[in-house]
Amino acid sequence: MNNAFTTCLTNCSFSLLAGMAVFSILGHMAFTQGVPVKEVAGAGVGLAFITFPAAIGTLGSAAPFFGVLFFLALTFAGITSLISINEAAIAALMDKFNLARKPATIFYTGTAAACSLLFATGGGLYILDIVDHFTNNFGIVFGGLLEVLLIGWLFNLQSIKDHINPISDFKVGNWWLFSIKVVTPLVAGYTGIMTLISDLKKPYEGYPPEALFWMGWFVLIVITVGGMLMAKLKWQGEQSLVKGGVTYDR
């Protein structure tokens, strides 16, 4: 629990610091150019590889130094995120199919690398933008919303709290129960629903509907269906016992 709290607090603190830096830079660029912020602000990869480099380029002789620092920070952020995301999937493969780490890692990263070749095509940047938008704003948001609803309202949160407090330096109180049951579902639900309404009113970034379906909604469908099918597969070494006409898995 200590690691979980430290990770969350560090991540959120860095996000707040980065947010202040982003809006300060965008505001300065908009003011000096005499245009609205939305005309200088990019989104996603555009923000990282177009807007920020343009802002760093205005620093004169210090631009190369800060440019190196920025892209080094971006590189390490990408690598650490890649490791944390891949580790969850690799650990699941190891547990589900009783695989050693090396073959599980080779299988998963090889499959991911093959799929990512699509992003290296001529339209790869646009494909990445659509996939990133749908997986982050819908897949992760609604997946997290479903998770907190199930944990908060179908499980005994008090028993989880009683288990956490004796072994953690960070004690959780009733505020934690209230956050899981009410605050987080409201925030996640509002964010996801408002983004969905916005996308239904106006296609994301003006992309063709066919591209948004195949690279956005279809990807989410494949992920969801694939996850359900994987969940139905038996664990390696699992055996079924039949007692009194009822099947038990172990």
Characterise this structure:
The longest helix is centred in the first third of the chain and has 35 residues, at about 65-95. The chain has helices at about 1-35, 45-55, 65-95, 100-115, 125-155, 155-165, 175-200, 210-230; strands at about 240-245, 245-250. By secondary structure, it is mainly alpha-helical. The protein has a domain at about 125-235. The protein starts with a helix and ends with a strand. Residues about 240-245 have low confidence and may be disordered. A two-stranded antiparallel sheet has the order 1-2. Helices cover about 75% and strands about 5% of the residues. The protein is built from eight helices and two strands, in the order ααααααααββ. A hairpin with a 2-residue loop joins β1 and β2.
Our Rg estimate from Cα atoms comes to 22 Å
Main beta-sheet strand count, sense and barrel state: 2 strands, antiparallel
What is the total tally of β strands?
Answer: 2
Query: What structural class do the secondary elements suggest?
Result: mainly alpha
Distance between the termini: 29 Å
Number of helices: 8
Quick summary of this structure?
With 250 residues, the chain is mainly alpha-helical.
Could you outline the blueprint of secondary structure elements for this entry?
Elements (H helix, E strand, L loop, with lengths): L1 H32 L11 H12 L6 H35 L3 H16 L7 H31 L2 H8 L9 H28 L7 H24 L7 E4 L2 E4 L1
Antiparallel strand pairs: 1-2
Helix pairs in contact: 3-4, 5-7, 5-8
